[in-house]
Sequence to fold (76 residues):
Amino acid sequence: MKEILQTIIEALVEEKNEIQITEVQKGRETVFEVKVSSKDMGRVIGKEGRIAKSIRTIFKAASTKEQKKVQIEFVD
Fold:
């Protein structure tokens, strides 16, 4: 799942070398912490958070299929 998230984020940002995705296990839940360049953060979050919400929706559907719980956090 991390590779899929990496591919989606790479398509959105200009500075691909500054993408950092950290996978953290918290019990039965997997948390992906996404960090990008400060000037690309707006591109990843989108207007009123629409892009971020869409990314979370995609991963919620994928994680349901695998019977896991996934959370995506965008950090500065």
